[in-house]
């Protein structure tokens, strides 16, 4: 199983690097926003993201209270540095002119948003490892720091032991695929050798840790599972379902505009996070696997100095 997971993550990293590299090359050589006006930039997103992360951090600190003794230094450091950490991440610009590597980022790239192509032997029921991956669910795609996608993929979709064994290789693979692809397309990337890339990786680690912890608890905990089921269900009545879909399509534009307004951002983030926070606060009653995934993420980041400022 371990080998399969590694293979999948490597393939997923490969696809991601190509998406980033192709859109980067296109941006550098064409008028991207003329051709694709729907990807216009909204800088208010950065502020929303900051509020989102800092609110989640607060919640995790509270929810981890029951392991206070074991992780004393970790959570007290996080408590004192959380504002500086989110502030630092707040530099994540969405304006392509301010981005070091302006490219299209998927925005929700983890194993649940991939489709796998694999062979199986019907006579023996044997399954073979996937040989192809398709990215799906492009609803959050926008111009932003490509490393946010990579952080999200790694820390939502791998275990600590996989990272210990393979992370370095995966990061090298991402970087070399990005560089080769842009080269093939005739676009030079300046000031982004592996060392520069690693600096950017280190600077976005905090994002990976928090989003990874959130995603793990939403996916693995019982309360999270229940929430996802509810959210995913649409009315079984066909007519009612049609109206629900139409209505949500109609509302989503104006609602987004309203919520992105600076005066509304905090309210919007609180509303968005309310169900998540409830689930996070149940960390103490989660099973051991969920808990260890979450604490692994925090502990690993802590040991790598991610919470130091
Ligand atoms: C990134 O952080 C690690 C600690 O996890 C450190 O060993 C490494 O030197 C850092 N790399 C760069 C390029 O800053």
From TrEMBL:
Gene3D superfamilies: 3.90.1200.10. Residues 8-184 form the CHK kinase-like domain. Residues 1-19 form the signal peptide. Coiled coil: none annotated. Keywords: Signal. PANTHER family: PROTEIN KINASE-LIKE DOMAIN-CONTAINING. This is CHK kinase-like domain-containing protein. It comes from Petrolisthes manimaculis.
